[in-house]
Write a structure and sequence with these properties.
Blueprint (H helix, E strand, L loop, with lengths): L1 E7 L4 H13 E13 L9 H10 L3 H24 L2 E8 L2 H11 L4 E5 L5 H7 L2 H8 L4 E4 L2
Parallel strand pairs: 1-2, 1-4, 2-3, 4-5
């Protein structure tokens, strides 16, 4: 069991499994740190409905959808941590996912990083190399890769 566990989530099936695993790996007096990394995405990847809501509220469609996605994904972290009886903290950051995950793990002094093996963007990951693979290369902390 680990005292401090960082789990990155994007709302995918694999990241939901990672959240469950992170809560199970945390020591009874430990903390699960949930992280959602927001990347700048082209507007054509967002829905027209989100653009309409965002325009009416003064935000952008990307900001509105990303915030909703992040809150939904991080609520799963809170739910599983509470069910396991461990503390939890959640954060939303912008950046390149692998860099942000490694940086956040250092900032919270995580004893382990838990990730889903595959996220929402399987095609890009096949071409560019997955976030999980990059985190494995760039960190000196234990990494647990959880299948969906």
């Amino acid at each position: 069991m680990y005292g401090s566990v960082l789990v990155a989530t994007d709302g995918s099936d694999a990241s939901r499994a990672a959240v469950e695993e992170a809560a199970a790996l945390a020591a009874p007096d430990g903390t699960v740190h949930g992280l959602f990394v927001s990347e700048d995405l082209p507007m054509y990847t967002r829905s027209d409905a989100a653009a309409t809501v965002a325009a009416a509220s003064g935000g952008t469609a990307t900001e509105m959808e990303t915030t909703a996605d992040a809150e939904a994904a991080l609520s799963t972290v809170e739910k599983h941590a509470e069910a396991a009886g461990v503390d939890h903290e959640t954060d939303i950051v912008e950046g390149v996912p692998a860099r942000a995950i490694v940086s956040r793990a250092a900032a919270v002094d995580a004893d382990a990083i838990v990730l889903g093996k595959r996220g929402l963007d399987d095609v890009a990951e096949d071409i560019l190399g997955s976030t999980t693979e990059r985190v494995l290369r760039d960190t000196d902390r234990p990494v647990v890769a959880v299948p969906a």
